[in-house]
Design a protein that fits this description.
The structure is a single chain. It contains 8 helices and 10 strands. By secondary structure, it is of the alpha+beta class. Strands 1-2-3-4 form a 4-stranded antiparallel β-sheet, with helices on one face. It has a two-stranded antiparallel ribbon with strand order 5-6. Helix 5 packs across helix 6.
Length: 249
């Protein structure tokens, strides 16, 4: 309730969203909590679709995604008018025909939610969690500087790699480049310079064990350490001074 905002809920349910919700978005994102005799339920709804978490009899945590409106979802299949034609991304059908894809999308939503929830529930003191990343380290025998989580550049880097859309498939150099630098420059020299800078930043994160390379690809994913440390750092950074002082008392 206090950690996940509108953008997080939309990403959990598979919507591609930037740092803020687009001003033309006309849907509703609602989070509710209810407590009954059987347990407590937290529900995040995006229009008619939702992801909810509840404890059954206080002993079993269950997360489930409900898809009532699949219009914004896609499935890789042939056109209904040309069943023998080429495969392409088509709108997800509401019946049982695309049930396998609906189950896949729901499972991905559950996994994104659980991964984020695991980081939120981390109980280790922040100082111990981030102690190593704030110290210089080495990678392949070469010294690598420490991270400065509160500096504008490092903070923006951490926010970028922790985006929800990268949690399943990871991110590439060009994904970070577009987030940190915007549109691709027309000058080849400037483009190469930006790409090189992103490569060095990814190397920095790898050296501190925050990301790992996906074997056989050009993609990188957060490690368990990275998920926990970055989530904790961003939460501390976004907390008010009053909140932090209250925790220290």
């Amino acid at each position: 309730m206090t950690q996940f905002d509108t953008v997080d809920v939309m990403r959990f349910l598979g919507r591609r969203v930037g740092e803020k919700v687009h001003h033309r978005f006309e849907g509703d994102v609602i989070t509710t909590v209810k407590t009954r005799a059987e347990g407590t339920r937290v529900k995040h709804a995006l229009n008619r679709n939702s992801i909810k978490m509840y404890d059954k009899q206080g002993s079993v945590l269950r997360v489930e995604t409900t898809v009532n409106d699949p219009r914004d979802m896609k499935v890789f299949r042939t056109k209904e008018s040309d069943p023998n034609g080429p495969l392409s991304w088509q709108r997800l059908r509401k019946g049982v025909s695309d049930l396998h894809r609906r189950a896949q999308i729901s499972q991905q939503s559950n996994e994104r939610y659980l991964e984020s929830l695991a980081a939120v529930e981390h109980t280790e003191p922040l100082g111990k969690t981030v102690r190593d990343v704030c110290q210089p380290t080495t990678l392949n025998g070469r010294r690598v500087r420490s991270l400065s989580p509160l500096s504008p550049s490092d903070s923006r880097l951490l926010e970028s790699v922790a985006r929800s859309e990268f949690r399943l498939n990871g991110f590439r150099n060009r994904d970070l480049r577009s987030l940190l630098f915007g549109a691709i420059p027309s000058c080849p020299t400037q483009h190469k310079r930006q790409s090189g800078r992103i490569t060095r930043q990814i190397r920095l994160l790898r050296a501190h064990g925050l990301v790992r390379k996906v074997q056989g690809t050009q993609r990188y994913q957060l490690t368990a350490k990275g998920q926990t440390a970055i989530t904790a750092l961003l939460a501390a950074q976004n907390a008010s001074t009053k909140q932090l002082v209250q925790l220290a008392v």
